[in-house]
Amino acid sequence: MNHEIVESFSGLVRDKSIDKDILAGIVEDIFGMMVRKKYGLEAKFDVVVNMDKGDIEIYLERQVVDVVENPATQIDVETARKLSGEELSVGEEYVEIIPLVQFGRRLVTTAKQNFTQRIKEIEKELIFSEYSNSIGEIVVGEVYQIRNSDLLIMHNKNELLLPRGEQIPKERFKKGDTVRGVVKEVRKNASNPVVVISRTDARFLERLFELEIPEVYDGIIEIKSIAREPGERAKVAVESSDDRIDAVGACVGMKGVRIHAIVRELNNENIDVINFSDDQNVFVTRALAPAKLKDIELDKENHKAIVTVEESQVSMAIGKGGQNIRLASKLTGFDIQLVKEGSEYDIDLEEFKEELGDEIYTKFFDAGYETAKAVIDADIEELVEETGIDAEKLQEIVTLIKKEYEEAEVDEDEESQTEKADNTKSSS
């Protein structure tokens, strides 16, 4: 029966990577509980488990006495001599091996249930610990279930979650597909821990660089910052610690072979690799490429940058739907505001936030319209397409902004004329 019990317990953990010593300790605890239930809390005993041999031995220690007052801790002289076959005297210790059959099937079944519960708890802790230590690392698994656009991924016989929001837009997977993602977070749950993986996290792109570019993996090239709009475009700032190695060239690879491998993994996400610079003016300039800038004014304290560009470079600097300037802002850590060269006056669209409301303001901002003049000069059809706001509503908004803009522009001109007049008087 001993071997049968140990074998049944071992079968529960054979594929769960639980250490044999931990398993033996659990079995000792559980059978210790069985002994205390049968013989009482004062019982002296020892449980010896040999998982390799499939053997459990329980030793019960009792004192030899003339008159037994507590059967759990004492045994009379005659019974002790009869059972041991030795001439034991009062005051000596009698050690007896307790067969498991004495505990009965019911108690053994209870022990097995407790054991199963303990194994589940340990398994949960092992999963939580394993993946908590792997946050930010890539895992590769197989899609085994799709639930409300969320993917359940099987990795090393553990269930991982790839939520819809952590998937790259427009990419689709089916059951059986192999998926790579980075471990984003691990949450404790009533059942098993929830391991969330992501394909949109910036760390996923960073780990892909390490996989595909040996110089990044070896630490010769350092990734300084990453800005992503998953599935669309990303900017990566890199720096080489070896003057002989061109950081951008090494990342792109011969004929773009290295970067293309990453682009394919990210559902054709365009990746701009730029050289990092400690000179923030240079870094902002590179981040806004391919647009050519005329001037940059940095407010380092408030992390703002006013960038002046020629009219022909405005659309390039802003990018499709404001993408280029948004990514450049994320990459550099500066709130970049664009000013067209020669424009005499403009108003930040944020000044109209109260009239527009948060939702509409956000739609304009996300589409790259950050100033009043940018909205006024834009074509209505283009605005409809880029903001998703209907044409009639947009016409009302443009009329409102134009009216306030023109009034403010007049006030600005009057102030400028007054200032010029005052300066003339002072000089005369």
Number of strands: 15
Rounded mean pLDDT score: 84
Q: Report the oligomer.
A: single chain
The percent of residues in helical segments reads 40-55%
Radius of gyration: 37 Å
Strand order of the largest sheet: 5-6-7-9-8
| Count of alpha and pi helical runs | 16
The major β-sheet equals: 5 strands, mixed, barrel
**What sort of overall outline do the alpha carbons produce when their principal axes are compared?**
elongated
Low-confidence stretches: 423-428
Structural class estimated from helices and strands: alpha/beta
Distance between the termini: 115 Å
* Percent in strands: 15-25%
Features:
single chain; 428 residues; alpha/beta; N Utilization Substance Protein A, Chain:P, domain 4; OB fold (Dihydrolipoamide Acetyltransferase, E2P); five-stranded mixed β-barrel; 24% strand; elongated; disordered C terminus
